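User: Show me an example of a complex going from sequences to structure tokens.

Assistant: Sure. Here are the input components:
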Amino acid sequence: MAAVSSDINMVRVTNEEFVKKARDCEPVLLEKTVYPSHIVKIEKNGKTYPDVSVTGTPEDLPDHHMKKGDSICMDFGDHQVGYVTLKLASTGSPQDSPAYFRLKFGEIAKEMTEVSEEYDGWISRGWIQEEFIHVDVLPAVVVLPRRYAFRYLEILAIDTSPKWQLVVEEVSCRSVSAVDMESVLPVNTEDELLRRMDQVSLRTLQNCMQSVFEDGPKRDRRLWIGDLRLQALANYETFKNYDLVKRCLYLFAGLTRDDGRVGACLFIEPEYIVDDTFLFDYSLFFAPILLDYYEETGDKETLKELWPCAYRQIELLKGMFDENNLMVCAEGFWCFIDWTEGLDKQAAAQAVYIYCARRAAKIAGILEELDKVKELEKEIGDKVRASLEYLWDENTGLFTSGSSRQISYASQVWMILAEVVDQEKGRAVLKELERRKPEKGMVSPYMNHHFTEAMIQCGMKEEALEYMKYYWGGMIRLGADTFWELYNPENPAESPYGSSIVNSYCHAWSCTPTYLLRKYFLS
Amino acid sequence: MAAVSSDINMVRVTNEEFVKKARDCEPVLLEKTVYPSHIVKIEKNGKTYPDVSVTGTPEDLPDHHMKKGDSICMDFGDHQVGYVTLKLASTGSPQDSPAYFRLKFGEIAKEMTEVSEEYDGWISRGWIQEEFIHVDVLPAVVVLPRRYAFRYLEILAIDTSPKWQLVVEEVSCRSVSAVDMESVLPVNTEDELLRRMDQVSLRTLQNCMQSVFEDGPKRDRRLWIGDLRLQALANYETFKNYDLVKRCLYLFAGLTRDDGRVGACLFIEPEYIVDDTFLFDYSLFFAPILLDYYEETGDKETLKELWPCAYRQIELLKGMFDENNLMVCAEGFWCFIDWTEGLDKQAAAQAVYIYCARRAAKIAGILEELDKVKELEKEIGDKVRASLEYLWDENTGLFTSGSSRQISYASQVWMILAEVVDQEKGRAVLKELERRKPEKGMVSPYMNHHFTEAMIQCGMKEEALEYMKYYWGGMIRLGADTFWELYNPENPAESPYGSSIVNSYCHAWSCTPTYLLRKYFLS
């Protein structure tokens, strides 16, 4: 899967005024010092037990004298994003060699059992949360400069000397986030699984809410626009940090390609800079995010100021259709939709365009730009008609995609969300989908979210709730404290990166159960 | 080889006044910023070539874009002891993963080719000068907190990402020492080898002269008293930093076991503390070091103040002889002499005792403590007579050691240095030694130094110079910039640690050619 689509020669333009507005909305991070709650042993399968070889609780850590090869695994009780400090000492004879130890951080227990030397995936092994550290003189307070995302932290004494042992006197984590869990009331339900699902969603969202809405605090700290859309929706139902959404909108609008195209993601360090990756669906999502923000906040000034940027994406991408108003598929990684290998994205992309154009038209209406409303409505009508004429298959009662007329979940889901079919027809599509179970399924929680939303949109609330219990509930049954970047109920170890050791287990696009539960089911 | 002799329950006593005097003599380290002079490739055998794959000189470093697996090896032109700073940047798309790189420092070229994962020796692998570093945000100035001893520094890009490459913009080393090479004139000779031998000695000594006389700046930064003796002698002929010797004498005398026994070594961090290792010869050497210091400086106050400590070592260790005035050998690592495996140390230890008692007697004479002079002269007489009666073997014309009557270099050398035999007999012993070449040879430059001194003492100056050219000259022929902890001309890769990767290549006890040349040969 070609996951890199770079326009390395792109020319960037900056709207300084927009960037200033983004800067003004930068959050002051809240901090909380957290200590390990248990010392644990983790089995190869990820099963976790109290470590009986050491004296019980973290308070007794200093009694444990670590010689060459000894290790201690600390459990911080919940997923943390933060900065770790170790207080170390030595015992025995004077320290006649450097302390040399490995730190290994894991978001989930199973991650702690993976052997990083064996990693051979295609994304950087630099993402493996592991440090090799020498300390020449003990006692020492080691303040690690990097931020980690983890629940478990293992310290392995790679070597001491025959004459002295390493002592871990105290370990703490300064956990950071733009928001506070205590500011959100739990959902009102007796159903333990739903309560937990909400909490895990909230924690996921909280730990991704940093200087921007991050994608995943372990591995990809960038701001991705596809994820931002879902995070913003979950945030509106929970933390209600509107400034963070505003900041992100202004960042995307303020840092574009010279033709005004919004990037798929952007970096905030060492300076604000938009990446050279562009995705069809991600650029288009600017309009829905802007509309959602306006509908939640009533902030018309922002709506007005950023509307040209939203419209510009449609303007730039409407050229990707042929004379029959059908999406022309580009080579490679041009549109995200889902990680499903071999997925034909024509139909889903066509639907995403319609979905976004509908929202753009709504903004134009609010701003009383009637020419644009008209233009966009024609655009929507043309694309809907083409979808029904060329992609709808009467025989199967499903949408097809591409020249191979591939049938996938993604195509059906996005055609429903784009309202290409009405509620009743949508319901029939989803039922046929369930019966047929096409080979091209869904990999990411992102796609599963849209599947769930499609069910809700078709009035299948009961089925949607069951599906949530099956899908996100499945991660909870596997011990998730935060929801994962990837989860395939039929193969939980699956990774698009060649190894699950670099998977992210606290990931923006997985945080939506709290949104779905609070918006559609509970209050 | 049991190289650990710990008295872990020892009670330490501190003479605060002495420690204060040591503290008052603490040097202010001189600093010099050094940059790499070349980019090189090093072959498995240690042969070094200019690296033609990169653009020549270090000034062109920024033009080299390092992707996953790329490495650059920098040559700093000479052995450095110091603190390294790296200026790093990225090129290509924005940096979408941490920079993950390995730094490898080597004192000699061959060290750079060794594979640290294969190290399986008995001393701590923490000594291998290697760091694994993640940098999340580039550009960055990475100021490494540890001190390294090296000439070569390799940077290996373990991983970047397919989208960006690592750029090393500048690397510098803040080299430190208590003394300055420029303060010493070169030796007056046309012999290129001797000039080089002197320079390499000086650099060795300089790089070991830090807050104390270190043993080896790479691996063992402690102050060892056996090494101190030779360093002080070399220092008197060159840098003439008397305060550093005074500081070390006061440290040993101020930090002892509760019975007044001087330790074999001591640490200065995290606080001044004497180690729990005790060696027969090393404790006794306090007296010769004190006498040498006095003879060089005329500092009678120090002589007087530290004399009780010197005398106390003799007092404590005279109990190690039997009723025949013969050394009783203890188990294990009780006396250093040399690393030679299976070396019987009885004769050499007996001789070291005599050697040290002679110097103690001389101090007693200077201080007009006539009772002690008398007592020590009796002690010397008894031990010399016992050596000749029981250890001298008329048949071979050599000294034997232990119940197996082992013949070794060490026994002969120390009996000569202790003046148990006169010059003429000593010469015969050395000639017989050369003819016989006993199996128990010499491993350390420390032992080779004493062998050379024994030759000089016996009037064999020419042979001594030839030997120096053979022995220390051998290291120079192998490319040494500083003299090594260990060098066996017949097996240069030998290590007492199970692997040469942890050998120290700038080592205190190897610095003596400058002393020998300047004192006995050149001026």
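The lines above are the inputs; the final block is the predicted structure for all two components together. The domain at 30-177 of chain B is CATH 2.60.120.260 (Jelly Rolls).
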